[in-house]
Amino acid sequence: MTTLDLNADLGEGIGADDALLQIVSSASIACGGHAGDETTMRVALRGAKARGVAVGAHPGFADPEHFGRRRLLLEPEELDAQVRGQVSRFCELALEEGVPVRYVKLHGALANMAAEEPAVAAVAFTAIAGLVRDLSVLAIDHSAQVEVASAFGYPVIREAYADRAYLPNGLLVPRAEPGAVLHDPEAIAERAVRLALKSEIVAIDGTVIATEAQSLCIHGDTAEAVEIARRVRTALETRGIVVRAPY
Fold this sequence. Notes:
The protein is α/β, with parallel strands linked by helices. It has a single domain (about 5-245), classed as TIM Barrel (Alpha-Beta Barrel), CATH 3.20.20. The chain contains eight helices and ten strands. The chain has helices at about 15-20, 40-50, 75-95, 110-115, 120-125, 145-150, 185-200, 225-240, and strands spanning about 5-10, 25-30, 55-60, 100-105, 135-140, 155-160, 200, 210, 215-220, 240-245. Helix 6 links the parallel strand 5 (about 135-140) and strand 6 (about 155-160).
């Protein structure tokens, strides 16, 4: 039986969280850095709990003005404090709401920097050590995140992106470049099926990239997010692929 997790970034104060929670199997919830606050975290946690959706913490640079998508060069101590502070507060709220935190997924510029630079990944993953028992890391496949998280002993769930274009090396095309964000729900759905059945994704230049991704991300802040998620889930299930969280 072929399975694939569908995850969405939620609790960011934009997008249609309620609709997405009826489609996805995992929710990566913003925890007050790039977006979100205590109220949005609680709402997202309660929504995920009601629908049986697995929950993860989604920390990023504390830079809401740029939605955490601006690369910041922080001292290791400051980066540690930002990540640890966000994830620990999220875990406290999740405990109060009776929702287990299954994983951590880095957001935006922090995620991209950690994908490229092992030192950044090491600081981020050291920061979450000991916060939750059996915490997994949802990490961009083909990246330093996978290598570092594995070396630190975290269970790693490899992730691909449904709505982002890829470079031939398996990393994402920077958002500032043309074609970096995909918008056609039908084409994205076909891409998801190919990933699930053939374990491959096609880069922006046509290069076919082998992937071990177990989870597919649909960004919750794009205008077409709900339609994309519906098309992807329908396409997967039509081909006999089970949408299920791996936690």
